[in-house]
UniProtKB/TrEMBL annotation, chain A:
InterPro entries: Acyl-CoA_DH_CS, Acyl-CoA_Oxase/DH_mid-dom, Acyl-CoA_Oxase/DH_mid-dom_sf, AcylCo_DH-like_C, AcylCo_DH/oxidase_C, AcylCoA_DH/ox_N, AcylCoA_DH/ox_N_sf, AcylCoA_DH/oxidase_NM_dom_sf. Residues 20-124 form the Acyl-CoA dehydrogenase/oxidase N-terminal domain. The lineage of its organism: Bacteria, Bacillati, Actinomycetota, Actinomycetes, Streptosporangiales. This is Acyl-CoA dehydrogenase family protein. Keywords: FAD, Flavoprotein, Oxidoreductase. Residues 128-218 form the Acyl-CoA oxidase/dehydrogenase middle domain. It comes from Nonomuraea harbinensis.
UniProtKB/TrEMBL annotation, chain B:
This is Acyl carrier protein. It holds the Pfam family PP-binding. InterPro entries: ACP-like_sf, PP-bd_ACP. Coiled coil: none annotated. Residues 1-78 form the Carrier domain.
Length: 388, 84
């Protein structure tokens, strides 16, 4: 297995990913054959990052003229599903970049948008999302990174951990405590006082180039703060996490679809006791549940995407539910996919071992399972069937 | 101030918190209802229902304390839009 992609590079303007079909073709050509190798070396190569840029995949939802193609959220979900089907590490890089690009577009001033969105859209600048800290994960109110107003700007101090893409990103979206609330700050990687320490050898999404990022007296201009201060500053984080959760839901569905495709192919040719695995009722039960859950997850995701496109606030809960369902289904079915493959499923020769490890991560990031369930339970007494 | 806007906003808040008795002049922050998820839902609801964008500088707590203050904000932003 090799990291090098022998397929010809896409010409400028040609081979743009605009929908599920083109995303599937891109992923099958440039990602699927190499995903296990990325996993083993613990990074995705620069060449792939460039190919993603050529395909217009980094932030296609940005408006045309701001580095994007105005892609709607339903389609974006489908595209992220396809990328997740091929490689969760690449999808993770896409997720955090999406969060940064969207946040700048949604909350940035005209000057901030003008400065950052074209480069975020083209992928010339890659973004990463810095919220978690060594002592604060689920409980975001426990973050201790501070941004103190000074000389009209800000001074940033603290440590962020588990930053996906941190080893590679050019621009960090950092959440820090201010006098009033929690603020979102744009910090260039090359700002003095920023240090990046790689985190390797994770259980899953091993090629997503995680890092711990330290900020020691990093001096920021007034234009580093993104969005309003005060009570609504929390909304910047809520919105950013909502889109990240949507992308992770899509990626989880991609893992599930990959498990289904790998398992049905394997079950068709592997023979035991004179019959193909797929003819055995216990194996059929596993395959039927994969098919059913993949369809259900896809519907939940499409509904969350449709509500996003409509600007409907119900998208927030719909996204929690889609992510909860898709991530737990991915874990369940990845375990069964390994089971169907037997010893081969535990070996590096089949992708299901990677899918199994990657799936587990989906239950922890962008709101762990427990946090999902606490939040969704809040919906219980409002949950009524509506009659048109 | 539009009575309709006030009623629509109040209905949205009541739907989210069916167990609570809230009127249009009650401070929903003081009642402890507002977390960042609900704040985001409120802003999205107002923007979609009244077809406007709330600029960052109007995202102040005083504009969101009560259904009345939100309806005033809607009236102001709608007037700005009409004048533009
Ligand atoms: C591969 C990977 C990539 C990541 N990428 C990023 C990134 O790019 N940026 C970023 O900021 N962070 C990132 N994270 C961090 C991630 O967001 C956190 O791991 C996650 O929020 C959980 O926080 P924690 O790990 O500190 O667990 P904790 O918050 O310490 O929780 C530990 C356990 O307790 C449970 N728990 C917590 N609260 C409750 C409760 N109230 N009731 C019941 N159970 C509870 C949790 O669900 C979990 O099972 C990444 C993590 C991983 C593994």
């Amino acid at each position: 297995m090799t990291l090098t992609d022998p397929a010809p590079a896409l010409g400028t303007g040609a081979g743009q990913v605009t929908d599920r079909r083109s995303a599937r073709a891109f992923v099958d050509t440039h990602v699927v054959p190499y995903a296990d190798a990325y996993d083993r070396v613990g990074r995705v190569p620069e060449e792939l990052i460039e190919r993603v840029a050529e395909a217009g995949l980094w932030a296609p939802f940005l408006p045309p003229g701001s580095g994007g193609a105005g892609m709607d959220m339903v389609t974006l979900g489908e595209v992220h599903e396809e990328v997740g089907r091929g490689c969760s590490s690449l999808r993770s890089l896409l997720t955090v970049h999406t969060m940064v690009a969207w946040t700048v577009q949604r909350w940035g001033t005209a000057a901030q948008r003008e400065r950052w969105t074209p480069a975020l859209g083209s992928g010339d600048v890659l973004g990463a999302f810095c919220l978690s800290e060594p002592g604060a994960g689920s409980d975001t109110s426990a973050i201790t990174t501070t941004a103190v107003e000074s000389g009209g700007g800000w001074v940033l101090n603290g440590v962020k951990k588990w930053t996906t893409g941190g080893q590679r990103a050019d621009l960090f979206l950092v959440f820090a405590r201010t006098a009033a609330s929690i603020g979102a700050f744009l910090v260039s990687r090359d700002a003095p006082g920023v240090r990046v320490k790689p985190i390797d050898d994770m259980l899953g999404t091993r090629a997503s180039m995680l890092a711990e990022i330290s900020f020691d007296d990093v001096v920021l201009g007034p234009d580093a703060l993104l969005g309003p201060s005060g009570f609504t500053a929390g909304m910047v984080l809520t919105g950013t996490l909502d889109l990240g959760r949507y992308s992770v839901a899509a990626g989880s569905l991609g893992i599930l679809q990959a498990c289904l495709e790998a398992s049905s192919a394997y079950a068709a040719h592997r023979r035991v006791g004179g019959s193909a695995l797929r003819e055995l009722p216990l194996i059929q039960a596993k395959l039927s549940d994969m098919v059913t859950d993949a369809r259900a997850a896809r519907l939940l995701l499409a509904e969350a995407g449709r509500l996003k496109d409509a600007g409907d606030s119900a998208t927030l809960m719909a996204t929690w539910i889609a992510k909860y369902f898709a991530s737990t289904a991915a874990v369940r079915h990845a375990a069964e996919a390994v089971q169907i493959h037997g010893a081969n499923g535990c070996s590096p020769d089949f992708p299901v071992a990677r899918l199994y490890r990657d799936a587990k991560v989906m239950e922890i990031i962008e709101g762990s399972n427990e946090i999902q369930r606490i939040t969704i339970a809040g919906q219980a007494e409002r949950e009524k069937t509506t009659c048109p | 101030m539009s009575a309709t806007a006030k009623d629509q906003i109040l209905a949205f808040v009541r739907e989210r918190y069916p167990q609570a008795e809230i009127d249009a002049s009650q401070d929903i922050f003081a009642l402890g209802f507002v977390n960042s998820l609900f704040a985001m839902e409120l802003v999205m609801f107002v923007e979609k229902t009244f077809e406007l964008t709330i600029p960052n500088e109007e995202l102040r707590i005083d504009n969101f304390r009560t259904a009345e203050s939100m309806a005033s904000l809607v009236a102001k932003l709608s007037a700005d839009l009409a004048a533009a």
